[in-house]
């Protein structure tokens, strides 16, 4: 495994004494899309800010493409593009100028052809002479990405890339991020949208209360933890689960009107036909059946709720 970012024992205690990160170890693989998931205040932005050199860690070390972020700050920072959560660009600046300016900040010679390519890739070329204030929210976000790409970074951080963006724009953004990855850029994104991680990320890291509680391939995680659920709506309520149904892992809800059956969606036999046959034999009538697949969201909620401090 070739890692492009190596994070070792990162701790962060803010000036007020708040411990925002508690010994985070993480390796980011070259060329992957890595999603960092976590509830509000989990420490995602703190971690990204430390990697990008905007916040100092209290302890631990990080190397980015072989450069220590403290000792070789400039080299490390030069390999990183950061798209922050909030837009901060002068409202009166023009799109092309602001992107060209970002490149200059890193000491690179002007490159009009590169700026043009970036703007075209982000479908901003038509807006190249527009002022930032004249753009829609989605366009502004793309301008922030263009600015982050202007110095040709190998790594791109996207902090909540689709927060507050409508579904269609979110899909566009996903396409864009994939296209960037296809050009060899390693992408780390933070998100509250589980669907986003599920859809896009090669690997997922879950951070909660300053601790990285899980890092896993997205597909393996879904396979390992993904279950399916069948709900049987009963015609008449049951007072208790009949012992004849003990072969299935069933739960009866509080009013006795719903049977819930959780099964492994990868199992050869789900046990559903036999369960339904047994219900019929027992004379238990039902009015409806629903199935539901657990999503990364369920997995995430269960992980995070299990670890809430008492
Ligand atoms: N400058 C600061 N001084 C003190 N505490 C801070 C500071 N910045 C962040 N924190 C605290 O550190 C914790 C982690 O914040 P952080 O912004 O990293 O969370 P996050 O996971 O990015 O959350 P969100 O999803 O809401 O953006 C929070 O409890 C926050 O209040």
UniProtKB/TrEMBL annotation:
User: ABC transporter domain: from which residue to which, for each copy?
Assistant: 5-234
Q: Name one GO molecular function term.
A: ATP binding
Q: Does the keyword Mitochondrion apply?
A: no
Q: Which UniProt keywords apply?
A: ATP-binding, Nucleotide-binding, Transport
Keyword Nucleotide-binding recorded: yes
CDD domains of this UniProt entry? Answer: ABC_DR_subfamily_A (cd03230)
What PROSITE patterns does the record tag this protein with?
A: ABC_TRANSPORTER_1, ABC_TRANSPORTER_2
Name by which UniProt lists this protein: ABC transporter ATP-binding protein
* The species this protein was found in: Sandarakinorhabdus glacialis
Task: Cite the source lineage.
Answer: Bacteria, Pseudomonadati, Pseudomonadota, Alphaproteobacteria, Sphingomonadales
């Amino acid at each position: 495994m070739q890692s492009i970012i190596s994070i070792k024992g990162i701790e962060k205690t803010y000036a007020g004494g708040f411990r925002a990160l508690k010994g985070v170890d993480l390796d980011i693989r070259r060329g992957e899309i890595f999603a960092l998931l976590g509830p509000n205040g989990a420490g995602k932005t703190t971690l990204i800010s430390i990697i990008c050199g905007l916040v100092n860690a209290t302890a631990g070390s990080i190397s980015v493409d072989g450069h220590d972020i403290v000792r070789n700050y400039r080299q490390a920072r030069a390999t990183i593009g950061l798209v922050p959560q909030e837009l901060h660009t002068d409202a009166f600046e023009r799109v092309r100028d602001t992107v060209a300016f970002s490149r200059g900040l890193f000491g690179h010679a002007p490159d009009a052809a590169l700026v043009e390519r970036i703007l075209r890739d982000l479908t901003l070329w038509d807006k190249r002479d527009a002022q930032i204030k004249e753009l829609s929210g989605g366009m502004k976000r793309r301008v922030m990405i263009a600015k982050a790409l202007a110095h040709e970074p190998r790594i791109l951080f996207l902090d909540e890339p689709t927060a507050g963006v409508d579904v269609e724009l979110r899909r566009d953004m996903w396409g864009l991020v994939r296209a960037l990855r296809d050009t060899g850029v390693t992408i780390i994104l933070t998100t509250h949208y589980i669907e986003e991680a599920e859809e896009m990320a090669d690997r997922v890291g879950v951070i909660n209360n300053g601790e990285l509680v899980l890092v896993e391939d997205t597909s393996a995680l879904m396979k390992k933890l993904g279950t399916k659920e069948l709900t049987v709506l009963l015609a008449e309520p049951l007072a208790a689960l009949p012992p004849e149904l003990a072969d299935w892992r069933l739960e009866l809800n509080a009013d006795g009107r719903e049977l819930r059956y959780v099964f492994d969606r990868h199992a050869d036999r789900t046990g559903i036909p036999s369960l339904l046959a047994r219900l019929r034999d027992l004379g238990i009538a039902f009015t409806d059946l629903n199935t539901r697949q657990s999503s990364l969201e369920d997995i995430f909620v269960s992980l995070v709720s299990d670890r809430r401090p008492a």
